[in-house]
Amino acid sequence: MKKYIIIPALLTVLVGQNGCEQKEFLNPSTISQSQAVSSPDGLITLANGLQYRFTTGGALSVLYAGTAGSGLTTKELAVLNVGNIDEANMALGASNVNNGNSIVRNIWQQSHLVRSNAELILANTGVVSEAGTKSGLVGYASIFRALALGTIAQYFEQSPTTTATNAPFVARVQVLKEAVAALEAAATQVASAPVSANFTSKVVPGIDIPNTIQALIARYSLFAGDYDKAIAAAAKVDLTKRSVFNFDDNTRNPLFEVTFGNLNVFQPTNANLGLTGALAPVATDKRLAFLTKVSSNTAVTPVMANAYYTANNAAIPVYLPGEMGLIQAEAYARKGDLTNAVVQLNKVLTKAAAADAFGLGAALPAYSGANTADAILLEILRNRTIELAFQGFRLEDSRRFNRPGPGATGSERNRNFFPYPLTERNNNTATPADPAN
Amino acid sequence: MSNHYHSIRHPRLLYGWITMLLILSSTLAQAQTTRYTLKGRVTDENGLGLPGATVLLVGTTTGSATDAEGNYTIGAALKPGPATLAVSAIGYETLRQAITLGTAETITTDLKLKEAATNLDEVVVTGSTLSAPKRELGNAITTIKAQDLQQSGSGNLINSLQGKVPGAQITQNSGDPAGGISIRLRGIKSLVGSSDPLYIIDGVIVSNASTNVSQLALANDVGNANVGQNRLSDINPDDIASLNVINGAAAAAQYGSRAANGVVIITTKRGGSGKATVNFSTSFNINELRKSVPVNTYGKQFGFAALRLYTIGGVSAAQIAANPGTTTTGVFRDGATTQLATNLVDVTRYNYFDQIFRQASGTDNNLSVSGGTDKTQYYVSFGYLKNGGIVKDTDFTRYNLRARVDQRLTNWAKVSVGLSYANSLSNEKANGNVFYSPINSVNITNNIYDITQRDAAGNLLAVEPTRVNPLSTIEDMKFSQQVSRTISSVQFNLTPLKGLTVDYIAGVDAYSQFGKNYIRPYPYQAIAGLPAARYPQGFAANATNQVMQFNNDLNAQYERQLGESFKVNLVAGYSYQYFQSDYSQVSGQNLAPFIETVSGASNATYGVGYTLDRYSLSGLFGQATLGYKNLAFVTGAIRRDQSSKFSPTQTNQYYPKVSGSLVVSDLDFWKNASFNNAFNGLKLRASYGEAGNLSGIGSYARFYQFSPVGFLGRNTVTPGTQLANPDVQPERMAEIEAGADLTFMNGRLGLGFSIYKQKISNLVVNRTLAPTTGGTSIVNNVGSMENKGLEIILDATPVKTSNFTLDFTAIFNRNRNKVIDLGGLPIISPDASSASGTPVALLVGQPVGVFYGSPYARTKTGELILSPSGFPMTERAIAQPNGSTTFEPARNGEAVDVTKPEARAIIGNPNPKWTGSFSTNLAYKKLSLHILLDAVQGVDVFNADKRTRQGVGLGDYAEQELRGQIPRGYIFGIYNTQEFRVDPGSYTKLREVALSYTLPSFTRAISRLNVALVGRNLYSWDKYTGFDPETNAGGNNDLVRGIDFGNVPIPRTYQLKLSATF
Q1: What would the mean pLDDT of A187-198 be, rounded to a whole number?
Q2: Which of B465, B774, B901 sits opposite A263 (nearest CB)?
Q3: Does chain B have fewer CB atoms within 10 Å around its N or its C terminus?
Q4: What is the dihedral angle through the alpha carbons of B1014, B1019, B1025, B1031, rounded to the nearest 10 degrees?
Q5: For A195, how many CA atoms within 13 A lie in the half-sphere containing its CB?
Q6: pTM
Q7: CA–CA gap between residue B89 and residue B199 (Å, rounded)
């Protein structure tokens, strides 16, 4: 019997063994912010994260939300199944587009997350000693910060440009200038030291950093009304180089994945991209056959998008060579230099597919219309809507070219700007009133 | 005071103290002893043997339970001298019989028990090794016994509890054979963590998690829903002796930090001394669809056969040109006019549900052997269950093995071991939340295609573009999971000193889940054009989840009479709990022909993932009960807990409790009162307690995490969108409860009621952030919430004679949940809706999870305002603040101003006004009838499927529009108004009916043979327009409830059951 006396003693030992230390358990599958920004390699993984967040994730991605927001409000795209309620409301426009709309929210939210994440990289480049790697990081982060800010400015009247609680809002022109300023700083850095092989070997392939910086300076300077800067930057872009967002079967082309690869969400309105009247395309425009193809089920939709949306792994251009010509054409025209405007416009009109880095060519005769700013600008707009179809510029362009707005006769768009998403309004006291339309 | 805290703060000191005490006392216990055999028979007043009565030698743990004839045998080495036997049996007064241990080594004592006028001396389990007579408790605790589970017609333990627990709302979320089921005691307690109670089986904390290993394809579609079977489906109800359900925080001191949601303490069957008893039961059951939904079988369609969504889809000029004969009418809605087709064309319509559902059968078999000697008792069992689902090709199979051995080591020490192994296999179909689930694939496809048609190779053909042929979901998709689980424990029970008991439990719950997922490439993808979310080129995946929970409890209890009037009971305890899980998955798409596993996937589509979870929790508690004259009791306790989920500065949490009870009917004035004969018992009770939710947040939720993602072959990291507060604290629930237990007419009528109020403070909210802060949400303690409620239980036995007994029980519960604060936000929308489109919201001042959406426009007198086209329309509001439940309607004169934003109102509430049940048992000689009615009243369901069926064209409204019974455009007119989808969800179900007959004895080999006919969910009284209002597409998520979205309806079951005792 005596042996049982050992039981209580052993129990005490048992309990004492596993009870006393309160361990802290960390998750080895994730890292902390301080770990992430502590090394050049860590910053490069974050740079890849910018592109991941901006381009992938299907309907959540800025690429999808931007194309949907711009195309559905301007009749470029048509909804195939009204069960997709946010897309259907976007196509209806006016107050059907409310501040809970997921397309509105995703443009805002994902862009601001990308902007904030990019600022985190830019604030921590001090740990990078190698100049070429620093060039890569600053260039990459600035490109995505600019894309985020520029995208926001295309859809919203005002926006914060900094990360903070109750961040203050500034006018969209200021947002665009902030994007350009960031790109110019990056251009200086990249010019001082070319992007290193170390960076190139670790970053996601596809983006040509020096050319993309100039292309985006041109794009956002034009939107901001700074025409000289737009012309100068667009001229610096090497049009033979391709700069693309790459995808694969796991991280898919979001537009192909969600909508252009099936018949369930939206597709181009028709082979003329929904353009009618003064903006109707010329029938011989060879770009049309590149942009759409005949639908697999014409009872559902007459055409399906083609272009850069043909497979999960199809690459989407960051900018197109044609956009650079049209930026210069428009900037010259707005400055009153109609001669140079027509020169630049003709480069796009007469471009053959074989001469374009992406195989996109109108192969049309040179401009022969009236030599007035209005006529030339209309031709420039027609070409922008075709050359840059599905890339999310149509709402911005319609507004900038003063086309008939919401409620006007022959209206070509159903909104001017989007309302601020509820998630911002409810949690940021600085949020301004929503635009009427 | 300082000493007291000292010992709590330093666990080692406490153990040292206990060790010394134990060694000392056990030495003292080694006095001269003699080996005695105590035996006899326990009977009721009529001399009938009482099986299952407990006979205990007072002051020791020596004791035994009586066998089927009421006989007991206790063998023990004891000191000669006077001793006391205490005999207790449920429903009888506890008898204490003095005996003398003298020279005779065998002492025979027959004991006759008196039926109890009150049940106040029934002993109730309050913790894994703690128990107390009911009279001492300041809280309501419900006890469910084995026989209450036997005639439920279900092989799932929690299902069997439906309608039997006061204060519980038990909802079967899905009719899958292993379908999830959720149990909420006194409402929802947390917005981030689970509100699932803590389950303890024989002292082992067991998991009831729902971890998805078999539905990996839907991960992107399901939102916040927590779908799948809960792990309690591994438990065999036949092994259970009793369940004690502790609703309140104050009653659960032993589990303080995890008790906020209540505790369910499960005790399994044990063997008794005596010859072996063999129990065997077998059953056969049939499951069938109880009620279907109306399907449009009218062979017409608007426009042309290829017109999709013909009820709501506008027709373009191009379509009219391509389909001559198409005529249209303009219908105005929300400021725009849409041209809807009006001409009818002939089509053939089918009821696809006939191809999906089936009548299925099942069987449940259990064999147990129990018995023992006076020193060793054993119980071993084997169970086999197979149950078919009413959706074709779904089933659930479970094998259970269990052994429990109790071994007396000395007269002051006992050891018991429980071992169990369960293996379950379920064959599933895709969960309802996706459009390739059997039911949703029907809901979203116009029923004008013959889905049984095949091509020359035997492949199914395409239906409507972008839709899955419903038969593909049955024939070409396989989802299954296999679970191996062991729940094992070792327990030491020591009584080293008179009045002192020391109990130690070590328990392990370990299981592994392995899931297989397969979607065959659709042979008709070229025509159907399915989106990527349906995995057109096929999908295969495997996942494993390895979980281990360990708990280690040491409790010491000391009870002592102080003089004539006072009794004191002291408890001190320590608990350590550790949890770990490792989850890994691999998936792939674009499968090679005929290969059904991920091995056949294109390597470019491989997806892998690994997540792990670890946390530990430890707690110390002390409790003291002071009793006065066995009629008044006060209990106070304090518990301190630590959890690794919180930072070291926040980890120590103290939870106090205090409770009291007063047995008024034991006071002298009552005993002498004239009404004492009719009104026999009155106990008043009250308690206050605090409990925590230390496991309520994710183990790493207090860290801002940067996560790696796979991206084009380069290392990629994305900062989390969820920012973090490192100092987040555990939620705290404070509850005040009061109640009374009344007994009338010598126990024939009993009434118990409890009222309670819970306030949950430091409520953890995953608060939405403005994206310009760099994140989209943060987990923080910013909210508070309350639950108020009432529970009433009435038991009556109006007739009780030797041949005929009639009893009934009625339970009524109401709970009012209210969100008080959301950290200053007026509203939080959990990412709840998934594809169902349910506008679930958390609103300040409202219960959790209300449907906050667009109502119909109505006049001030409540009449519907019709649009210019003559249809009900969505209400519009002028400048309605976000989260506001009231608004000023936007009007242009009498008409609705459609340029203003849509109004938001509470259009439905998934929280019932009350729940209740009524059960009755009628026994005549050997024949008995059991009926259970279960009611959930005053509740709404968001019937997402109803609208889908109308829009696609197979619903009843669609048929009425085709037949001209409602005007053309009606469905289109109301389609966007969310109120259209809210249906009344109140129901009263005929939950259980059992007719059983005990056959006359015809051979000595069989001591008892019973045959029973059982029905489950036979009928439902409800006004719901879908399959079944008891449904929950959100699974076990607490915030997403009352949503019907492709859910498998709960079947009606008939069962024939045979049970025998040898």
Answers
A1: 96
A2: B465
A3: N
A4: -40
A5: 19
A6: 0.86
A7: 26
Cα separation, A84 vs A68, in Å, equals 12
Between residues B1034 and B287, the one the model is more confident about: B287
Q: Give Cβ neighbours of residue B56 (< 8 Å, ≥ 6 apart).
A: B62, B63, B85, B86, B87, B88
Mean of pLDDT values over A59-81: 95
Strand B360-372 with B274-288, pairing: antiparallel
Closest Cα of chain B to A203: distance in Å? 6
Encoded tokens for B840: 């679930």
Tokens of B321: 């040109």
CB B758 within 8 A of CB B787: yes
Residues B181, B155 contacting (CB under 8 angstroms): no
**How high is the pLDDT of residue B30?**
47
Distance CA A330, CA A227 (A): 8
For residue B252, give how far its alpha carbon lies from the nearest alpha carbon of chain A (Å).
Answer: 21
**CA dihedral of residues A360, A363, A366, A372 (deg, nearest 10):** -40
Residues of A in contact with B721 (CB under 8 A): 113
Q: In Å, how far are B631, B663, B753, B807, B916 from B743, measured between CA atoms?
A: 16, 11, 12, 15, 21
* Chain A contact set for B319 (CB, 8 A): 299
To probe the interface with A, which of B716, B778, B948, B978 has the most A CB atoms within 10 Å? B716
β-sheet bridge partners, residue B284: B363, B1056
Closest CA to B947 of B292, B293, B291, B223: B293
CA distances from B365 to B189, B239, B1007, B1053 (A): 38, 12, 19, 17
**Which residue of chain A is at minimal alpha-carbon distance from B13?**
A16
AA letter at A88: A
Residue B285 above 90 pLDDT?
yes
Facing residue for A204 by CB, picked from B334, B526, B714: B714
How many other C-beta atoms can be found within 10 angstroms of the C-beta atom of residue B425?
A: 16
Report, as an integer, the average pLDDT of B357-376: 93
Is B1016 exposed, middle or buried, given 0-12, 13-18 or 19+ CB atoms closer than 10 A?
buried
Non-local (6+) Cβ contacts of B161 within 8 A are B144, B149, B168, B170, B183, B243
pLDDT tens digits, one per residue of A368-417: 999 999 999 999 999 999 999 999 999 999 999 999 999 888 999 999 99
Q: Is the separation of the CB atoms in B702 and B728 below 8 Å? A: yes
Q: What's the token pair of residue B696?
A: 């309520």
Q: Which of A33, A58, A164 sits opposite B704 (nearest CB)?
A: A33
* CA distances to A373, B207, B578, B665 from B141, in Å: 86, 22, 27, 20
**pLDDT higher than threshold 70 for residue B273:** yes
Spell out which residues of chain A touch residue B975, defining contact as CB-CB under 8 Å. Answer: 82
No. of helices (H) and no. of strands (E), chain A:
18, 8
Give the residues across from B169 on adjacent strands.
B184
Answer whether B19 sits within 8 Å of A9, measured CB to CB. Answer: yes
The answer for residues whose C-beta is within 8 angstroms of residue B485's C-beta and 6 or more apart is B231, B234, B421, B422, B423, B424, B509, B510, B511, B512
**Which among B111, B115, B94 is positioned nearest to B41, based on CA atoms?**
B111
- Tokens matching residue B372: 């023992």
Are B998 and B1060 contacting, i.e. CB atoms less than 8 angstroms apart? no
Quote ipTM for the complex. Answer: 0.92
Residue with tokens 């203003």: B900
Q: For residues B1029 and B1027, what is the distance between their CA atoms, to the nearest angstrom?
A: 7
- The tokens for B859 are 């006049």
- The three state secondary structure string of B453-478 is CECCCCCECCCCCCCCCHHHHHHCEE
B489 Cβ under 8 Å from any chain A Cβ: no
CB pairs under 8 A between A and B: 286
